[in-house]
Design brief:
The chain is an alpha/beta fold. 27% of the residues lie in helices and 22% in strands. It is built from 9 helices and 17 strands. An 8-stranded mixed sheet has the order 6-7-5-12-13-14-11-15, with helices on both faces. Helix 2 (61-80) packs across helix 9 (339-351). It is globular and about 60 Å long. The two termini are 38 Å apart. It binds flavin-adenine dinucleotide (FAD). Residues 11-17, 34-37, 41, 44-46, 51-52, 173-174, 190-194, 198, 212, 214, 257, 304-306, 329, 331, 333-337 line the site of flavin-adenine dinucleotide.
Length: 375
């Protein structure tokens, strides 16, 4: 392990903070990681069972490239630490409608990034996935090497490895920079949905928290149609639907959620009970697309929050006035997969005098009105 003298304090053991801390520690730095609740806890955006890893991002090729890089790093990490089961290569099926601009742009980006994918015709989709009641004209992009990452366990694994290689983890909160000694250490606030509370003037109106509800449905006993490999992770964003789901992983049930932004939420005080409206919306969707599950029992449920920036681009930047203070956040409902690349990017920005920043990640490019473009 190389040696280095600068010390770093990372606040937040979600996927961003965990990877930033781990990456800096691997580079030989003295790093302390703090979280008052614990890695990937139930109220964090990184909590919960699973997250999608996919590289299709329409015209936003920067995220295609980051997803490819991150998947390689996730897989190396899991292989090196003997945890291969935390990435399940189910494939990701993105259902597409005719003349779907996002899908057309994704195909170009996937080819540019040499991502292995299949273009499935409507007939292919119906033949391969008879459990999906795809309307006529619905084809798909199938990313073969994509899949599901076991989210909470994966973050906890990164923190465990971080401490194993000499990083210090403490169950504590970092205070605002004006209350800390910013000469002693570089402070990195990777506090996800709490960033707006910590920096009300700077980020309070630049991060929009939305309530996101997730349901798990019990699959009929002995019915393997809703398990991998019969069913991959899938997304169904046609006709304003914004639905996505997972096959039955680790026997938790068929997971179903809507990516449309829900109402505002406070991560400290919100009740984490799914609303009757969401249950009704999910049931009606199931009847249409997965009719065999229309009456399936709800076996688990979660309420989480997205921490959205105005357009969905991350904030990975230095504090505008405090030299030793950095932000990492704004995962905007798609950040999990990118944890490793975020760690690499921010570590490079902080430690290299010659690194050139990506304008989309700068604080100055974040608006105070929401207009989502990244999906
Ligand atoms: C329902 C749902 C589905 C999603 N699906 C996907 C998906 O399929 N694919 C994907 O790539 N992404 C997905 N995302 C997005 C992704 O999960 C988030 O972008 C990502 O987890 C954000 O991680 P984070 O580390 O920034 O924040 P968090 O995980 O919230 O971590 C922030 C941490 O900071 C800590 N903290 C707060 N204040 C302090 C303090 N003062 N000092 C120290 N620590 C502090 C908190 O306790 C918390 O643990 C989804 C998100 C949700 C909610």
């Amino acid at each position: 392990m190389p040696r280095n003298t600068t010390s770093f304090t990372v606040a937040g053991a979600g996927v961003f903070g965990a990877w930033i801390a781990y990456t800096l520690r691997r580079a030989g730095h003295a790093v302390t990681l703090l979280d008052p609740f614990g890695p990937a806890h139930s109220c964090a955006s990184s909590g919960g069972e699973s997250r999608i890893i996919r590289a299709s991002y329409g015209t936003d090729e920067i995220y295609t490239r980051m997803a490819v890089r991150s998947l390689a790093l996730w897989e190396t990490f899991f292989a090196e630490t003997n945890r291969r089961q935390l990435f399940q290569r189910t494939g990701v099926l993105w259902l597409t409608e005719p003349d779907d601009a996002h899908a057309n742009a994704s195909r170009v980006a996937l080819r540019n990034a040499k991502v292995d994918f299949e273009d499935l015709s409507p007939a292919d989709v119906r033949r391969r996935y008879p459990q999906i009641n795809a309307a006529s004209g619905v084809g798909a992009i199938f990313e073969k090497n994509a899949g599901a990452i076991m989210a909470r366990q994966a973050v906890q694994a990164v923190v465990e490895e971080f401490t194993r290689i000499g990083g210090e983890y403490r169950h504590a909160a970092l205070r605002r920079p004006e209350e800390e000694d910013t000469r002693a250490s570089v402070l990195i606030y990777a506090c996800g949905p709490w960033l707006g509370k910590l920096f009300p003037d700077l980020l309070g109106r630049r991060i929009f928290l939305s309530r996101q509800e997730v349901l798990f449905f019990g699959v009929p006993p002995g019915d393997f149609r809703f398990q991998s490999p019969q069913l991959p992770v899938w997304l169904d964003f046609g006709s304003q639907r914004a639905m996505y789901g997972f096959p039955d992983l680790e026997a938790r049930g068929f997971k179903l959620a809507c990516d449309r932004h829900g109402p505002p939420i406070d991560p400290d005080t919100a009740d984490r009970l799914v609303s009757p409206e969401t249950i009704q919306q999910m049931r009606s969707y199931l009847s249409e697309r997965f009719p065999a599950l229309a009456h399936a029992p709800i076996v688990d449920a979660r309420v989480c929050q997205y921490e959205n920036t105005s357009n969905g681009d991350f904030i990975l930047d230095r504090h505008p006035t405090l030299e030793n203070v950095w932000f990492a956040g704004g995962g905007s409902g798609h950040g999990f997969k990118h944890g490793p690349a975020v760690g690499e990017y921010l570590a490079r920005m902080i430690t290299s005098a010659h690194a050139s920043p990506e304008s989309r990640f700068l604080f100055s490019t974040k608006a105070t009105a929401q207009s989502r473009v990244v999906y």
